[in-house]
Amino acid sequence: xxxxxxxxxxxxxxxxxxxxxxxxxxxxxxxxxxxxxxxxxxxxxxxxxxxxxxxxxxxxxxxxxxxxxxxxxxxxxxxxxxxxxxxxxxxxxxxxxxxxxxxxxxxxxxxxxxxxxxxxxxxxxxxxxxxxxxxxxxxxxxxxxxxxxxxxxxxxxxxxxxxxxxxxxxxxxxxxxxxxxxxxxxxxxxxxxxxxxxxxxxxxxxxx
Length: 208
Prior knowledge:
Elements: E1 20-22, H1 24-30, E2 35-38, H2 42-46, E3 54-55, H3 65-72, E4 77-80, H4 85-96, E5 102-104, H5 107-113, H6 133-154, H7 160-176, H8 180-185, H9 195-206
């Protein structure tokens, strides 16, 4: 069930609001009037994003809350990620700090699957496109499991604890809807936003 987007009047006290959800068709019809914030890593963003979307990685949201709050006073905010999980977390953070916002149901993957265009930066100073975070997590988890099994057979059985640890981590991730491995991978250089890139994004946000 979708909740309508709304914006608080300037000067009103900061109180928590209820985040909304927009379906693909709803977002497509209103894209021209929405401020779209893509909370994926810079590399994921470079691999293809909604037209006009601004890249503010999830781990930078807290520091730009004032800018996002001001932007919400001039138009509705729509937060997107790859599948909708990270954008839902971002919406909880923003709404809890009084920023009216909605998430895109299904994320960028659903947008592309519905036949909508994705924009891909071509400038030489744009970070190189990388795999989605979900794909990076799958690769890393699978590699560690295989390494644990192989080393357990060839070197010492204790190495199989690596595989068990990954399995336990995946179960915990599903139960808590969090992912520690994704948080660690997000710290790698290719997943990090450069200060200059973030400053450019914030300048574009302030000029809207």
